[in-house]
């Protein structure tokens, strides 16, 4: 079923024109990209199915094209390519914002950026935001994968990458696939180890952010740094 087959007041395009994009639900915005549904399922239902299957918009941001292909109605390359392109544009737009402004001016943007990149990964990922002297984003690098401990995250590698980027400060980050964002004692110990190592080369650790889909925890905000 296409948009033209939906009742007039249920058509996302008309609603967007009349009330603005902010008035649309996530499923409605996604339906605008999809344009058509499948037999027995209109486009809004297909959009809602995708959100539920992949854990909302955050989950969709990290969904591989092959995973999308497994959903009935997403087998064609056109829809998958368009959706993948839009999601990548969202990530890049957020990154550009952080490159223009100090992270202290937009702490929520930092959390959202990290959620978009690593929040929905099925395995643990340790990433570092490398910042310039004005605390603007230079780049994000994913450095380690797997269970994160002091033995699996190598301070020497983090220091090496900080020097490579001529970073003045960093924001450490990792995800919790379990969904809990509370830091473990190992997380806190790792943070202090990396903080001490980076201090030797005059690089500040501004924060360590833990993310999961739709949630984030800032050690700096909780006074753990």
TrEMBL record:
According to its UniProt record, which protein family does this protein belong to? Belongs to the UPF0758 family.
- Pfam families the UniProt entry points to: RadC (PF04002), UPF0758_N (PF20582)
Name the Gene Ontology biological process terms.
proteolysis
GO MF annotation, one: metal ion binding
Top-rank taxon:
Bacteria
- This chain belongs to the protein called DNA repair protein RadC
Please give the InterPro entries that the UniProt record associates with this protein. MPN, RadC_JAB, RuvA_2-like, UPF0758, UPF0758_CS, UPF0758_N
Domain spans labelled MPN: 103-225
Which species is listed as the source? Variovorax boronicumulans
**Organism ancestry:** Bacteria, Pseudomonadati, Pseudomonadota, Betaproteobacteria, Burkholderiales
- UniProt-listed Gene3D superfamilies: Cytidine Deaminase, domain 2 (3.40.140.10)
What are the entry keywords? Hydrolase, Metal-binding, Metalloprotease, Protease, Zinc
Q: Which residues form the signal peptide?
A: none
């Amino acid at each position: 079923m296409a948009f033209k087959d939906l009742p007039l007041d249920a058509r996302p395009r008309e609603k967007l024109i009349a009330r603005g994009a902010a008035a649309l639900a996530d499923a409605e915005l996604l339906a605008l990209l999809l344009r058509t549904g499948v037999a027995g399922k209109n486009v809004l239902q297909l959009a809602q199915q995708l959100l539920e299957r992949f854990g909302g918009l955050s989950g969709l941001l990290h969904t591989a094209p092959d995973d999308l292909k497994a959903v009935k109605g997403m087998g064609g390359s056109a829809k998958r390519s368009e959706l993948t392109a839009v999601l990548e544009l969202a990530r890049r737009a957020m990154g550009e914002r952080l490159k223009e402004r100090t992270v202290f001016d937009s702490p929520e943007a930092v959390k959202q950026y990290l959620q978009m990149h690593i929040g929905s990964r099925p395995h643990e990922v340790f990433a570092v935001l490398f910042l310039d002297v004005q605390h603007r984003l230079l780049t994000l690098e994913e450095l380690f994968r797997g269970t994160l401990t002091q033995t699996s995250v190598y301070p020497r590698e983090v220091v090496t990458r900080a020097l490579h980027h001529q970073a003045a400060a960093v924001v450490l980050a990792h995800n919790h696939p379990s969904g809990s964002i509370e830091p473990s004692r190992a997380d806190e110990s790792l943070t202090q180890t990396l903080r001490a190592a980076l201090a030797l080369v005059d690089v500040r650790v501004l924060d360590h952010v833990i993310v999961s889909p739709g949630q984030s925890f800032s050690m700096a905000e909780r006074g753990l740094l």
